[in-house]
Design brief:
- This protein is an all-alpha fold and 165 residues long.
- It has a domain of 113 residues.
- Helices cover 77% and strands 0% of the residues.
- The protein contains seven helices and no strands.
- Helix 5 packs antiparallel against helix 6.
- The C terminus is likely disordered.
Length: 165
């Protein structure tokens, strides 16, 4: 019988990704034109705000891939989920460039940490389950690890170790 925690882990990862990436990262695209019009922002200003988000995402991905990340990865995941929600909500109150740049930078960073952390948690859990619906645990874990683009070498090594057990 399959461990019921596998379903809750998968669902938790799905919800975390939907919240951080679906809302925290991609909600910006459809609200950009009305935001530009309401605040009188030009294309250059909108591009700067988007660039701040991309830079935050890059640095967040590098932070999440750092093998010596202090503290629990679960705490990082939950903290970044909360911070992603807070930065998204705070965008409604920003009226000048400085807050927009800061909020989009932090929002980008938090969404990258959530993506990486939730992928790692899900892959580690699935690979540690005794009964997998794959041909072999190593095949399944390799497929899942490759699907999560921001694994560090340390994370890939952990997945490989678990797959061989």
């Amino acid at each position: 019988m399959q461990d019921p925690r596998a379903y809750s882990t998968a669902l938790g990862g799905l919800i975390a990704l939907a919240a951080a990436l679906g809302i925290g990262r991609f909600v910006y695209t459809p609200i950009l034109p009305p935001m530009m019009q309401a605040l009188g922002l030009g294309q250059a200003a909108a591009g700067m705000i988007a660039s701040a988000n991309f830079l935050g995402y890059l640095l967040g991905a590098l932070l999440a891939a750092w093998p010596r990340l202090p503290g629990s990865r679960r705490v990082w995941l939950l903290g970044c989920l909360l911070l992603s929600a807070a930065t998204t909500a705070a965008m409604g109150g920003a009226a000048t460039m400085a807050p927009f740049l800061l909020l989009r930078f932090v929002g980008g960073g938090t969404s990258a940490v959530v993506r990486s952390s939730s992928c790692l948690a899900s892959v580690t859990w699935v690979c540690s389950c005794a009964r997998l619906a794959c041909a072999s645990p190593s095949t399944c874990c390799a497929w899942l690890a490759n699907d999560c683009a921001f694994f560090s070498e340390a994370a890939r090594s952990r997945v490989s170790i678990v797959a061989t057990i």
